[in-house]
Amino acid sequence: MIRKIPKRSQSGVALFSALILVLVMGALVTTMAISFTGQNKFNQRSWKYEKSLMMAETGVQRVITGLAHENDAITWDMKNLSVIPSSPPSGFWLWSWQSIKNEQGKEIGRYRIEIMPGNTNKKRMRLKAYGMAFEHKKDGTPTESVQRAIGVELRQISLGDFAIASNHQLGGARINGGARIYGGILTGGELHLDSSSTGVFNDYLDIQDNQNFSGYTTPATAPEAEIFVYKDPNLPAGANNGTIKLASQAALGTSTQPMKKIHTAETSTSIDPGNGDAITVGDGIIGQGEGRAKGPRDHRLPDLQFPDASSGSGFMNARQLEAQQNGNAVYNGDLVFGSTSFTIGDGPALTYDGATGALTINGPVLINGNVQMTKAIQYDGKGGLFVDGNVASNRGIEPATPAGYPDQHALGLVATGDMQLGSNSGSSTKYAGFFFGNRSLNLQKAKIFGNVFGNTINLPTTGTRPDIYVHPDVMASTGVTLPDFNQAEIVKEMWWEMNGSAAR
Predict the structure, then answer these.
(1) Summary mean pLDDT of the chain
(2) Taking the C-alpha atoms of 50, 55, 60 and 65 in order, what is their torsion angle to the nearest 10 degrees?
(3) Would the N or C end of the chain have less CB density within 10 A of its end CB?
(4) What DSSP string describes 81-135?
(5) Could you tell me where the DSSP H helices lie in 7-98?
(6) Is 264 strand, coil or helix?
(7) Is the pLDDT at 447 greater than 80, yes or no?
(8) Helix (H) or strand (E) segment spanning residue 430
Protein backbone atom coordinates (compact mmCIF):
# COMPACT_ATOMS: atom_id res chain seq x y z
CA MET A 1 0.00 0.00 0.00
CA ILE A 2 1.29 3.43 -0.96
CA ARG A 3 1.44 5.90 1.88
CA LYS A 4 0.71 9.51 0.90
CA ILE A 5 2.86 12.26 2.37
CA PRO A 6 0.92 15.03 4.01
CA LYS A 7 0.95 18.37 2.19
CA ARG A 8 2.72 20.07 5.09
CA SER A 9 5.55 17.55 4.83
CA GLN A 10 5.74 18.07 1.08
CA SER A 11 6.13 21.80 1.65
CA GLY A 12 9.03 21.11 4.04
CA VAL A 13 10.78 19.00 1.43
CA ALA A 14 10.35 21.72 -1.19
CA LEU A 15 11.70 24.33 1.20
CA PHE A 16 14.69 22.14 2.04
CA SER A 17 15.40 21.63 -1.68
CA ALA A 18 15.18 25.36 -2.29
CA LEU A 19 17.63 26.02 0.55
CA ILE A 20 20.06 23.48 -0.87
CA LEU A 21 19.76 25.12 -4.29
CA VAL A 22 20.40 28.57 -2.80
CA LEU A 23 23.48 27.28 -0.96
CA VAL A 24 24.79 25.59 -4.09
CA MET A 25 24.17 28.69 -6.18
CA GLY A 26 25.81 30.85 -3.53
CA ALA A 27 28.83 28.60 -3.48
CA LEU A 28 29.00 28.70 -7.25
CA VAL A 29 28.74 32.48 -7.28
CA THR A 30 31.43 32.73 -4.61
CA THR A 31 33.67 30.31 -6.51
CA MET A 32 33.11 32.22 -9.73
CA ALA A 33 33.81 35.53 -8.00
CA ILE A 34 37.00 34.15 -6.49
CA SER A 35 37.92 32.71 -9.89
CA PHE A 36 37.17 35.95 -11.70
CA THR A 37 39.07 37.96 -9.10
CA GLY A 38 42.04 35.62 -9.33
CA GLN A 39 41.88 35.63 -13.10
CA ASN A 40 41.65 39.41 -13.11
CA LYS A 41 44.69 39.68 -10.85
CA PHE A 42 46.49 37.15 -13.06
CA ASN A 43 45.55 39.13 -16.18
CA GLN A 44 46.68 42.36 -14.58
CA ARG A 45 50.01 40.84 -13.59
CA SER A 46 50.39 39.20 -17.01
CA TRP A 47 49.60 42.53 -18.66
CA LYS A 48 52.17 44.32 -16.48
CA TYR A 49 54.64 41.52 -17.20
CA GLU A 50 54.34 42.17 -20.94
CA LYS A 51 54.25 45.91 -20.40
CA SER A 52 57.55 45.77 -18.54
CA LEU A 53 59.12 44.28 -21.67
CA MET A 54 57.79 47.23 -23.66
CA MET A 55 59.44 49.56 -21.14
CA ALA A 56 62.78 47.81 -21.63
CA GLU A 57 62.38 48.02 -25.41
CA THR A 58 61.72 51.75 -25.12
CA GLY A 59 65.10 52.18 -23.49
CA VAL A 60 66.78 50.14 -26.24
CA GLN A 61 65.16 52.28 -28.93
CA ARG A 62 66.38 55.42 -27.18
CA VAL A 63 69.94 54.09 -27.38
CA ILE A 64 69.52 53.25 -31.08
CA THR A 65 68.23 56.77 -31.79
CA GLY A 66 71.10 58.34 -29.87
CA LEU A 67 73.66 56.26 -31.77
CA ALA A 68 72.10 57.18 -35.11
CA HIS A 69 72.49 60.90 -34.41
CA GLU A 70 75.48 60.81 -32.04
CA ASN A 71 73.52 62.73 -29.43
CA ASP A 72 71.57 62.17 -26.18
CA ALA A 73 74.94 61.46 -24.47
CA ILE A 74 75.24 58.21 -26.48
CA THR A 75 78.10 57.31 -28.83
CA TRP A 76 79.60 54.12 -30.24
CA ASP A 77 82.77 54.93 -28.29
CA MET A 78 80.85 53.74 -25.22
CA LYS A 79 80.65 50.16 -26.50
CA ASN A 80 83.11 48.92 -23.85
CA LEU A 81 81.84 51.16 -21.05
CA SER A 82 81.07 48.77 -18.17
CA VAL A 83 80.60 51.29 -15.32
CA ILE A 84 79.42 54.85 -14.94
CA PRO A 85 82.28 57.08 -16.16
CA SER A 86 84.03 59.22 -13.57
CA SER A 87 83.30 62.30 -15.69
CA PRO A 88 80.06 61.51 -17.52
CA PRO A 89 79.03 63.71 -20.46
CA SER A 90 76.29 66.27 -20.03
CA GLY A 91 72.89 64.60 -20.04
CA PHE A 92 74.29 61.14 -19.27
CA TRP A 93 71.34 58.89 -18.39
CA LEU A 94 72.61 55.32 -18.46
CA TRP A 95 72.68 53.18 -15.28
CA SER A 96 69.68 55.04 -13.81
CA TRP A 97 65.93 54.57 -13.98
CA GLN A 98 64.14 56.76 -16.54
CA SER A 99 60.40 57.48 -16.31
CA ILE A 100 57.75 56.73 -18.93
CA LYS A 101 54.51 58.68 -18.63
CA ASN A 102 51.13 58.45 -20.30
CA GLU A 103 49.38 61.29 -22.11
CA GLN A 104 48.06 62.64 -18.79
CA GLY A 105 51.59 62.89 -17.42
CA LYS A 106 51.14 59.96 -15.03
CA GLU A 107 54.19 57.75 -14.59
CA ILE A 108 53.31 54.21 -15.68
CA GLY A 109 56.73 52.60 -15.97
CA ARG A 110 60.48 52.96 -16.07
CA TYR A 111 63.50 51.68 -17.98
CA ARG A 112 67.17 51.39 -17.15
CA ILE A 113 70.01 50.71 -19.59
CA GLU A 114 73.47 49.39 -18.83
CA ILE A 115 76.31 48.53 -21.22
CA MET A 116 77.52 44.99 -20.70
CA PRO A 117 81.26 44.32 -20.36
CA GLY A 118 83.29 41.75 -22.25
CA ASN A 119 82.61 43.00 -25.78
CA THR A 120 85.49 42.23 -28.16
CA ASN A 121 83.89 43.25 -31.46
CA LYS A 122 84.59 46.85 -32.46
CA LYS A 123 81.29 47.09 -34.36
CA ARG A 124 79.03 45.70 -31.62
CA MET A 125 77.50 47.05 -28.41
CA ARG A 126 75.80 44.81 -25.85
CA LEU A 127 73.10 46.26 -23.63
CA LYS A 128 71.29 45.10 -20.53
CA ALA A 129 67.83 46.66 -20.52
CA TYR A 130 65.49 46.67 -17.52
CA GLY A 131 61.80 47.42 -17.78
CA MET A 132 59.39 48.11 -14.90
CA ALA A 133 55.60 48.37 -15.16
CA PHE A 134 53.19 49.50 -12.41
CA GLU A 135 49.88 51.27 -11.89
CA HIS A 136 50.35 53.03 -8.58
CA LYS A 137 52.99 54.63 -6.41
CA LYS A 138 53.12 55.08 -2.66
CA ASP A 139 55.29 57.91 -1.39
CA GLY A 140 56.91 58.02 -4.81
CA THR A 141 57.75 54.30 -4.81
CA PRO A 142 56.06 51.96 -7.32
CA THR A 143 53.75 49.36 -5.77
CA GLU A 144 52.92 45.94 -7.20
CA SER A 145 55.52 46.51 -9.89
CA VAL A 146 56.69 43.89 -12.38
CA GLN A 147 60.24 43.98 -13.72
CA ARG A 148 62.00 42.22 -16.60
CA ALA A 149 65.56 42.31 -17.90
CA ILE A 150 66.69 41.55 -21.43
CA GLY A 151 70.03 41.43 -23.21
CA VAL A 152 70.43 43.03 -26.64
CA GLU A 153 73.37 43.25 -29.05
CA LEU A 154 73.51 46.15 -31.51
CA ARG A 155 75.53 46.15 -34.71
CA GLN A 156 77.03 49.37 -36.08
CA ILE A 157 76.81 50.21 -39.77
CA SER A 158 78.73 53.28 -40.97
CA LEU A 159 80.56 54.57 -44.03
CA GLY A 160 83.71 52.84 -42.84
CA ASP A 161 82.09 49.45 -43.54
CA PHE A 162 82.04 50.04 -47.29
CA ALA A 163 84.83 49.08 -49.65
CA ILE A 164 83.22 51.46 -52.16
CA ALA A 165 80.88 54.36 -51.49
CA SER A 166 79.64 56.44 -54.42
CA ASN A 167 76.92 59.05 -54.60
CA HIS A 168 76.17 58.18 -58.23
CA GLN A 169 76.36 55.17 -60.49
CA LEU A 170 79.85 53.69 -60.60
CA GLY A 171 81.13 55.63 -63.57
CA GLY A 172 77.98 54.78 -65.49
CA ALA A 173 79.70 51.54 -66.49
CA ARG A 174 79.71 47.92 -65.46
CA ILE A 175 82.21 46.25 -63.16
CA ASN A 176 83.70 43.41 -65.15
CA GLY A 177 86.70 41.36 -66.16
CA GLY A 178 87.65 39.84 -62.83
CA ALA A 179 87.19 42.81 -60.48
CA ARG A 180 86.79 41.51 -56.95
CA ILE A 181 85.43 43.61 -54.11
CA TYR A 182 85.56 42.34 -50.54
CA GLY A 183 83.23 44.43 -48.42
CA GLY A 184 80.09 46.51 -48.73
CA ILE A 185 79.08 48.84 -51.55
CA LEU A 186 76.97 51.98 -51.28
CA THR A 187 76.03 53.56 -54.59
CA GLY A 188 73.25 54.95 -56.77
CA GLY A 189 71.83 53.91 -60.13
CA GLU A 190 72.69 50.41 -61.29
CA LEU A 191 75.33 48.18 -59.74
CA HIS A 192 76.28 46.07 -62.76
CA LEU A 193 78.53 43.06 -62.21
CA ASP A 194 79.47 41.60 -65.57
CA SER A 195 81.41 38.52 -66.75
CA SER A 196 83.01 35.64 -64.88
CA SER A 197 85.26 36.02 -61.84
CA THR A 198 83.67 39.39 -61.07
CA GLY A 199 81.94 39.76 -57.76
CA VAL A 200 81.33 41.33 -54.38
CA PHE A 201 82.10 39.16 -51.39
CA ASN A 202 81.68 39.11 -47.63
CA ASP A 203 85.07 37.66 -46.66
CA TYR A 204 88.81 38.26 -46.94
CA LEU A 205 89.66 35.50 -49.38
CA ASP A 206 93.25 35.66 -50.72
CA ILE A 207 94.05 38.87 -48.85
CA GLN A 208 97.30 37.36 -47.54
CA ASP A 209 98.36 36.26 -51.01
CA ASN A 210 101.75 37.71 -52.00
CA GLN A 211 100.11 39.61 -54.85
CA ASN A 212 97.65 41.22 -52.46
CA PHE A 213 98.41 42.28 -48.87
CA SER A 214 100.70 39.68 -47.38
CA GLY A 215 102.14 40.79 -44.04
CA TYR A 216 99.22 43.02 -43.14
CA THR A 217 96.99 42.17 -40.20
CA THR A 218 93.66 40.83 -41.41
CA PRO A 219 90.75 42.46 -39.51
CA ALA A 220 89.57 40.31 -36.62
CA THR A 221 85.98 40.22 -37.84
CA ALA A 222 84.52 39.53 -41.27
CA PRO A 223 83.44 42.55 -43.33
CA GLU A 224 79.73 42.03 -42.47
CA ALA A 225 79.18 43.49 -45.91
CA GLU A 226 75.92 45.04 -47.07
CA ILE A 227 74.87 46.44 -50.44
CA PHE A 228 72.91 49.71 -50.72
CA VAL A 229 71.77 50.82 -54.17
CA TYR A 230 69.81 54.09 -54.23
CA LYS A 231 68.06 55.76 -57.15
CA ASP A 232 70.36 58.15 -59.01
CA PRO A 233 68.53 61.35 -60.03
CA ASN A 234 71.14 61.95 -62.74
CA LEU A 235 70.12 58.89 -64.77
CA PRO A 236 67.72 59.34 -67.70
CA ALA A 237 64.18 58.03 -67.59
CA GLY A 238 63.95 54.39 -68.56
CA ALA A 239 67.40 53.48 -67.19
CA ASN A 240 67.71 50.69 -64.66
CA ASN A 241 67.80 52.75 -61.52
CA GLY A 242 68.15 51.49 -57.99
CA THR A 243 68.91 47.98 -59.23
CA ILE A 244 71.62 45.34 -59.22
CA LYS A 245 72.34 43.59 -62.51
CA LEU A 246 74.23 40.31 -62.41
CA ALA A 247 75.68 38.51 -65.41
CA SER A 248 75.31 34.76 -65.46
CA GLN A 249 78.78 34.15 -64.03
CA ALA A 250 79.05 37.16 -61.71
CA ALA A 251 78.69 36.71 -57.95
CA LEU A 252 77.16 38.65 -55.09
CA GLY A 253 78.21 36.80 -51.96
CA THR A 254 78.49 33.04 -51.74
CA SER A 255 76.34 30.26 -50.30
CA THR A 256 78.76 29.80 -47.40
CA GLN A 257 79.39 33.52 -46.87
CA PRO A 258 76.34 35.46 -48.12
CA MET A 259 76.07 39.23 -48.01
CA LYS A 260 74.78 40.48 -44.68
CA LYS A 261 71.96 42.27 -46.50
CA ILE A 262 71.15 43.50 -49.99
CA HIS A 263 69.11 46.73 -50.19
CA THR A 264 67.76 48.06 -53.50
CA ALA A 265 65.52 51.02 -54.27
CA GLU A 266 63.68 49.53 -57.26
CA THR A 267 60.49 47.58 -56.49
CA SER A 268 58.74 47.55 -59.89
CA THR A 269 57.67 44.07 -60.99
CA SER A 270 57.62 45.21 -64.63
CA ILE A 271 61.32 46.08 -64.45
CA ASP A 272 62.06 43.06 -62.28
CA PRO A 273 59.73 40.12 -63.05
CA GLY A 274 62.08 37.70 -61.32
CA ASN A 275 63.68 34.54 -62.63
CA GLY A 276 60.74 32.21 -62.14
CA ASP A 277 61.06 32.08 -58.38
CA ALA A 278 58.35 34.14 -56.67
CA ILE A 279 60.78 35.38 -54.04
CA THR A 280 62.85 37.16 -56.70
CA VAL A 281 59.99 39.23 -58.16
CA GLY A 282 60.52 42.93 -57.46
CA ASP A 283 63.63 42.40 -55.35
CA GLY A 284 65.57 44.91 -57.48
CA ILE A 285 68.06 42.28 -58.69
CA ILE A 286 67.95 41.56 -62.41
CA GLY A 287 70.02 39.73 -65.03
CA GLN A 288 70.80 36.15 -65.88
CA GLY A 289 72.81 35.74 -62.69
CA GLU A 290 69.98 36.83 -60.39
CA GLY A 291 70.09 33.47 -58.64
CA ARG A 292 73.74 34.09 -57.71
CA ALA A 293 72.80 36.87 -55.29
CA LYS A 294 73.23 35.39 -51.83
CA GLY A 295 71.84 37.10 -48.74
CA PRO A 296 68.59 38.55 -47.39
CA ARG A 297 67.19 41.39 -49.48
CA ASP A 298 64.83 44.28 -48.89
CA HIS A 299 64.17 47.88 -49.93
CA ARG A 300 65.09 49.62 -46.67
CA LEU A 301 67.57 52.39 -47.40
CA PRO A 302 68.57 54.91 -44.70
CA ASP A 303 68.02 58.56 -45.50
CA LEU A 304 71.55 59.88 -45.76
CA GLN A 305 73.36 62.88 -47.17
CA PHE A 306 76.48 61.87 -49.04
CA PRO A 307 79.59 63.61 -47.62
CA ASP A 308 80.47 66.97 -49.14
CA ALA A 309 84.20 67.71 -49.12
CA SER A 310 84.12 70.37 -51.85
CA SER A 311 86.30 73.46 -51.75
CA GLY A 312 84.91 75.96 -49.25
CA SER A 313 82.58 73.39 -47.65
CA GLY A 314 82.05 73.32 -43.93
CA PHE A 315 83.96 70.04 -43.84
CA MET A 316 87.07 71.48 -45.53
CA ASN A 317 86.92 74.71 -43.51
CA ALA A 318 86.95 72.61 -40.35
CA ARG A 319 89.94 70.63 -41.65
CA GLN A 320 91.84 73.85 -42.37
CA LEU A 321 91.27 74.99 -38.80
CA GLU A 322 92.47 71.62 -37.49
CA ALA A 323 95.58 71.78 -39.69
CA GLN A 324 96.37 75.30 -38.45
CA GLN A 325 96.04 74.11 -34.88
CA ASN A 326 98.34 71.18 -35.75
CA GLY A 327 101.45 73.35 -35.82
CA ASN A 328 100.30 75.45 -38.79
CA ALA A 329 100.32 72.35 -41.03
CA VAL A 330 99.09 74.22 -44.13
CA TYR A 331 100.86 74.41 -47.51
CA ASN A 332 99.75 76.87 -50.18
CA GLY A 333 100.44 75.91 -53.79
CA ASP A 334 100.76 72.81 -55.94
CA LEU A 335 102.93 70.07 -54.47
CA VAL A 336 104.82 67.14 -56.01
CA PHE A 337 105.83 64.11 -53.97
CA GLY A 338 108.81 63.30 -56.20
CA SER A 339 112.58 63.63 -55.84
CA THR A 340 112.52 66.79 -53.67
CA SER A 341 112.33 66.52 -49.87
CA PHE A 342 110.22 68.90 -47.77
CA THR A 343 108.42 69.41 -44.46
CA ILE A 344 105.07 70.98 -43.57
CA GLY A 345 104.15 72.48 -40.21
CA ASP A 346 106.09 73.56 -37.15
CA GLY A 347 106.09 70.05 -35.65
CA PRO A 348 106.65 69.18 -38.33
CA ALA A 349 103.29 67.54 -39.02
CA LEU A 350 104.57 66.05 -42.29
CA THR A 351 108.03 65.18 -43.57
CA TYR A 352 108.84 63.72 -46.97
CA ASP A 353 112.11 62.18 -48.17
CA GLY A 354 112.44 62.60 -51.93
CA ALA A 355 115.23 60.01 -52.17
CA THR A 356 113.22 57.14 -50.67
CA GLY A 357 109.58 58.23 -50.90
CA ALA A 358 109.27 57.92 -47.12
CA LEU A 359 106.51 60.07 -45.61
CA THR A 360 105.83 60.69 -41.92
CA ILE A 361 102.52 62.24 -40.91
CA ASN A 362 101.10 63.26 -37.55
CA GLY A 363 97.53 64.59 -37.58
CA PRO A 364 95.74 66.69 -40.20
CA VAL A 365 97.66 68.45 -42.99
CA LEU A 366 96.06 70.77 -45.56
CA ILE A 367 97.38 71.56 -49.05
CA ASN A 368 95.80 74.42 -50.98
CA GLY A 369 96.65 73.21 -54.46
CA ASN A 370 96.99 70.11 -56.61
CA VAL A 371 99.07 67.10 -55.54
CA GLN A 372 101.07 64.68 -57.66
CA MET A 373 102.71 61.59 -56.21
CA THR A 374 105.22 60.36 -58.78
CA LYS A 375 106.98 57.98 -56.39
CA ALA A 376 105.80 54.99 -54.39
CA ILE A 377 104.91 56.38 -50.98
CA GLN A 378 105.72 54.52 -47.76
CA TYR A 379 104.31 56.25 -44.72
CA ASP A 380 104.70 56.20 -40.95
CA GLY A 381 102.29 57.66 -38.42
CA LYS A 382 98.61 58.49 -38.56
CA GLY A 383 96.83 61.43 -40.11
CA GLY A 384 94.78 62.93 -42.90
CA LEU A 385 96.16 64.69 -45.98
CA PHE A 386 93.45 67.10 -47.19
CA VAL A 387 93.95 68.55 -50.67
CA ASP A 388 91.97 71.55 -51.89
CA GLY A 389 92.44 70.49 -55.50
CA ASN A 390 93.15 67.28 -57.45
CA VAL A 391 95.33 64.29 -56.53
CA ALA A 392 97.17 61.86 -58.83
CA SER A 393 99.08 58.89 -57.43
CA ASN A 394 100.24 56.18 -59.82
CA ARG A 395 102.95 54.32 -57.87
CA GLY A 396 101.17 53.20 -54.71
CA ILE A 397 100.74 54.31 -51.09
CA GLU A 398 101.50 51.84 -48.29
CA PRO A 399 102.62 51.88 -44.65
CA ALA A 400 106.33 51.23 -44.13
CA THR A 401 105.34 48.65 -41.50
CA PRO A 402 102.33 46.74 -42.86
CA ALA A 403 101.80 44.78 -39.64
CA GLY A 404 101.05 48.08 -37.84
CA TYR A 405 98.23 49.05 -40.20
CA PRO A 406 95.93 50.72 -39.25
CA ASP A 407 96.42 50.82 -35.46
CA GLN A 408 99.85 52.46 -35.59
CA HIS A 409 100.03 53.62 -39.21
CA ALA A 410 97.06 54.93 -41.21
CA LEU A 411 96.74 57.57 -43.92
CA GLY A 412 93.62 59.32 -45.17
CA LEU A 413 93.76 61.15 -48.50
CA VAL A 414 90.91 63.53 -49.39
CA ALA A 415 90.64 65.72 -52.51
CA THR A 416 88.02 68.39 -53.14
CA GLY A 417 88.25 67.63 -56.88
CA ASP A 418 89.33 64.47 -58.70
CA MET A 419 91.55 61.67 -57.44
CA GLN A 420 93.39 59.13 -59.57
CA LEU A 421 94.92 55.97 -58.12
CA GLY A 422 97.03 53.55 -60.14
CA SER A 423 98.04 53.60 -63.80
CA ASN A 424 96.78 51.80 -66.88
CA SER A 425 100.10 50.07 -67.60
CA GLY A 426 102.65 48.00 -65.75
CA SER A 427 102.02 45.99 -62.58
CA SER A 428 99.17 46.73 -60.19
CA THR A 429 100.13 49.20 -57.49
CA LYS A 430 98.95 48.88 -53.88
CA TYR A 431 97.14 51.41 -51.75
CA ALA A 432 96.44 50.97 -48.03
CA GLY A 433 94.41 53.77 -46.50
CA PHE A 434 91.27 55.83 -46.84
CA PHE A 435 90.75 57.55 -50.22
CA PHE A 436 88.04 60.08 -51.09
CA GLY A 437 87.74 62.08 -54.32
CA ASN A 438 84.92 64.50 -53.69
CA ARG A 439 84.18 65.06 -57.39
CA SER A 440 85.38 61.71 -58.71
CA LEU A 441 87.77 58.88 -57.97
CA ASN A 442 89.34 57.17 -60.97
CA LEU A 443 90.84 53.77 -60.30
CA GLN A 444 93.24 52.05 -62.71
CA LYS A 445 95.40 48.96 -62.18
CA ALA A 446 95.52 48.90 -58.39
CA LYS A 447 94.81 46.90 -55.27
CA ILE A 448 93.16 48.65 -52.34
CA PHE A 449 93.04 47.78 -48.64
CA GLY A 450 90.84 50.33 -46.89
CA ASN A 451 88.03 52.44 -48.38
CA VAL A 452 87.44 54.03 -51.80
CA PHE A 453 84.90 56.86 -51.79
CA GLY A 454 83.87 59.39 -54.39
CA ASN A 455 80.91 61.36 -55.68
CA THR A 456 81.44 59.26 -58.80
CA ILE A 457 83.81 56.28 -58.92
CA ASN A 458 85.19 55.09 -62.24
CA LEU A 459 86.48 51.54 -62.32
CA PRO A 460 88.44 50.21 -65.31
CA THR A 461 86.52 48.12 -67.84
CA THR A 462 89.59 46.89 -69.70
CA GLY A 463 92.94 45.52 -68.65
CA THR A 464 93.66 44.32 -65.12
CA ARG A 465 90.76 45.01 -62.77
CA PRO A 466 91.23 46.00 -59.13
CA ASP A 467 90.92 43.92 -56.00
CA ILE A 468 89.45 46.04 -53.20
CA TYR A 469 89.41 44.87 -49.57
CA VAL A 470 87.56 46.92 -46.99
CA HIS A 471 89.15 47.73 -43.65
CA PRO A 472 86.37 48.97 -41.37
CA ASP A 473 88.76 50.62 -38.88
CA VAL A 474 91.03 52.65 -41.13
CA MET A 475 88.83 55.74 -41.50
CA ALA A 476 88.58 56.24 -37.74
CA SER A 477 92.32 55.57 -37.33
CA THR A 478 93.27 58.32 -39.79
CA GLY A 479 91.17 60.92 -38.02
CA VAL A 480 89.31 61.68 -41.27
CA THR A 481 85.94 62.42 -39.75
CA LEU A 482 83.75 62.49 -42.84
CA PRO A 483 80.11 63.45 -42.35
CA ASP A 484 79.02 59.93 -41.53
CA PHE A 485 75.78 58.06 -41.19
CA ASN A 486 75.59 55.74 -38.23
CA GLN A 487 72.92 53.09 -38.29
CA ALA A 488 72.36 50.61 -35.50
CA GLU A 489 70.42 47.41 -35.88
CA ILE A 490 69.53 44.72 -33.38
CA VAL A 491 71.27 41.41 -33.98
CA LYS A 492 68.28 39.07 -33.96
CA GLU A 493 70.09 36.04 -32.62
CA MET A 494 71.48 38.13 -29.75
CA TRP A 495 68.24 39.17 -28.04
CA TRP A 496 67.55 37.22 -24.89
CA GLU A 497 65.75 37.45 -21.55
CA MET A 498 67.77 37.45 -18.37
CA ASN A 499 66.52 35.44 -15.42
CA GLY A 500 67.71 34.72 -11.92
CA SER A 501 70.89 36.40 -10.78
CA ALA A 502 71.63 37.59 -14.34
CA ALA A 503 68.54 39.82 -14.21
CA ARG A 504 69.68 41.65 -11.10
Answers:
(1) 86
(2) 130
(3) N
(4) --S--SSPPTT--TTS-EEEE-TTS-EEEEEEEEE-S----TTEEEEEEEEEE-S
(5) 7-69
(6) strand
(7) yes
(8) strand 429-437
